[in-house]
Amino acid sequence: MIIAESYIFQDWKANRDSFKGRAVMILFRCASWVSRYLILKIIFCWYLLIYKIVVGWFLNIEINPMAGIGRDFKLEYGFGSVINGDTNIGTNCTLRHLTTISCKKLEDGYSGPSPVIGNNVDIGCKCKYYWWR
Predict the structure, then answer these.
(1) Sign of dihedral through CA atoms 130, 72, 51, 109?
(2) Helices (H), 36-121
(3) Beta bridge partners of 105
(4) Nearest to 35 by CA among 69, 2, 65
(5) What is d(CA 75, CA 123) in angstroms, rounded to the nearest whole number?
(6) What is the pTM of this model?
């Protein structure tokens, strides 16, 4: 139980200023854990439906439970944000509102590769990438 609790509450401190961020990340971590195993998907399909309704419809945030998100993920506002299921995000990252992290649909109809985001990245509207030598 200690392992499950540390997994579910791993974003608690990062979202200390945001009740919404804490709630969404706890719901996401539970949905992510359920989505990993077929037997849990069958038993807890009702939870995945509740997750989709509460987080997706009411809070207007779409984080696919299959997305790989590292520890201390901070969700600031989050309104209108979308994260694809194949996306991998490192530890100690921040996501702001109206942000879409997904893959590009190619000309042949298939999807391109999903992004892999490193550690300590702050993602938001009109963000720019700066590379320091």
Answers:
(1) positive
(2) 38-43, 45-51
(3) 111
(4) 65
(5) 10
(6) 0.85
For the record, the structure tokens of 126 come out as 């009109």
Quote the CA–CA distance of 80 and 23 in Å, as a whole number: 16
Sign of the CA dihedral running 88, 99, 55, 42: negative
68 beta partners: 88
Both tokens of 11, joined, read: 């974003």
Q: Which residue reads 């790989």 in tokens?
A: 68
* Selection from 17, 15, 6 nearest residue 93 by Cα: 15
Instruction: Provide the b/e sequence for 59-93 (b: ≥16 CB within 10 Å).
Output: bebbbbbebebbebbbbbbbeebbbbebbebbebb
Q: Which amino acid is at 102?
A: S
Q: What is the pLDDT along the chain (133 residues), one digit of tens a residue?
A: 444 657 788 899 999 988 999 999 999 999 999 999 999 999 999 999 999 999 999 999 999 999 999 999 999 888 888 898 989 999 999 998 888 888 877 778 777 788 889 999 998 875 544 444 3
